[in-house]
Amino acid sequence: MSWQSYIDQSLLGTGQVAKAAIHGLDGSAWATSNGFKVTADQVLKIVNAFNSGTLAEFYTSGLFIGDEADNKFKFLRQNENSLYVKKGEGGACIFKTKQCLIFGIYTEGMQAGNCNNVVEKLGDYLIGSGY
């Protein structure tokens, strides 16, 4: 399956994710949904925070995802592989595998838990496949 197929079928195709992207841990874009662009700097900031265990800065500064003017998300919590953020009635789950970050954005009318489950299921699958 191509990386774009993971975006189109495994994430957007569920109806639980409005926008999605998969980026390598070096910041390179592997696949993205139309109109959604996560910058390499945003990816690297998240990867560095995961690797150093210093996610606390996101509590005060928030987290910027995408290139839209209003792209600041409020940091909620994290676990070993996931970050959870919120913006208005929407939010995101960001999952870190051995080789990539998976971004799943949900919007008003979507359930955060459903989006999180979809993103984390794909992340677990990719980890199990060596990614």
From TrEMBL:
Functional summary from the UniProt entry: Binds to actin and affects the structure of the cytoskeleton. At high concentrations, profilin prevents the polymerization of actin, whereas it enhances it at low concentrations.
Organism field: Branchiostoma lanceolatum
Record-linked PANTHER family: PROFILIN (PTHR11604:SF0)
GO-annotated molecular function: actin monomer binding
Recorded superkingdom: Eukaryota
Family: Belongs to the profilin family.
Subunit structure: Occurs in many kinds of cells as a complex with monomeric actin in a 1:1 ratio.
Protein name, as recorded: Profilin
Main location: cytoplasm
Pfam families to which the protein is assigned, alphabetical: Profilin (PF00235)
Matches recorded under SMART domains: PROF
